[in-house]
């Protein structure tokens, strides 16, 4: 899939939205796989970081938020952009990751 996506986008701008299996392990694998596709100045959006008590579904178990928090220290090119959380409610707190550039 990644190879096909690279062929399709070529040198174009790329934003990635992750919204599939919300287990921590799966999201970490998605982050490692798809983050390199994001072009500078664009976003990688991790959906549903609100689960596991952030603030909803406290018994969900480690999920997207925990994956983001583990992933980011090793990837300083991506930072959380809280300005994208400007509404009163979001299901993606700390999930809007902007690539430097």
First-to-last CA distance: 25 Å
Count of helical regions: 3
Arithmetic mean pLDDT: 94
Give the fraction of residues assigned to helices. 25-40%
Rounded radius of gyration (Å): 13 Å
Which descriptor suits the 3D outline?
globular
* SS-based class: alpha+beta
Q: Strands of the largest sheet, in order across it?
A: 1-2-4-3
Biggest sheet details? 4 strands, mixed
**What percent of residues are in strands?**
5-15%
Task: List low-pLDDT spans.
Answer: none
Number of β-strand runs: 4
| Topology pattern, helix = H, strand = E | HEHEHEE
Question: Which descriptors apply to this entry?
Answer:
alpha+beta; 3 helices; 101 residues; 27% helix; 4-stranded mixed sheet
How would you characterize this protein structure?
- There is one protein chain.
- Helix content is 27%, strand content 14%.
- With 101 residues, it is α+β, with helices and mostly antiparallel strands.
- The relative contact order is 0.21.
- The chain is built from three helices and four strands.
- The chain is globular, with a radius of gyration of 13 Å.
- The protein has helices at residues 2-9, 24-34, 64-71; strands at residues 16-18, 43-46, 78-80, 96-99.
Topology summary:
Blueprint: H1 2-9, E1 16-18, H2 24-34, E2 43-46, H3 64-71, E3 78-80, E4 96-99
Parallel strand pairs: 1-2
Antiparallel strand pairs: 2-4, 3-4
Helix pairs in contact: 2-3
Write a short abstract of this structure.
It is built from 3 helices and 4 strands. With 101 residues, it is an alpha+beta fold.
């Amino acid at each position: 899939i990644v190879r096909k996506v690279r062929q399709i986008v070529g040198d174009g701008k790329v934003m990635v939205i992750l919204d599939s299996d919300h287990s921590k392990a799966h999201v970490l694998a998605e982050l490692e796989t798809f983050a390199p596709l994001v072009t500078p100045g664009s976003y990688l959006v991790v959906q549903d970081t609100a689960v596991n008590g952030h603030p909803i579904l406290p018994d969900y178990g480690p999920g997207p938020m925990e994956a983001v928090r583990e992933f980011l220290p090793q990837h300083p090119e991506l930072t959380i952009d809280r300005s994208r959380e400007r509404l009163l409610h979001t299901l993606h707190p700390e999930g809007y990751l902007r690539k430097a550039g």
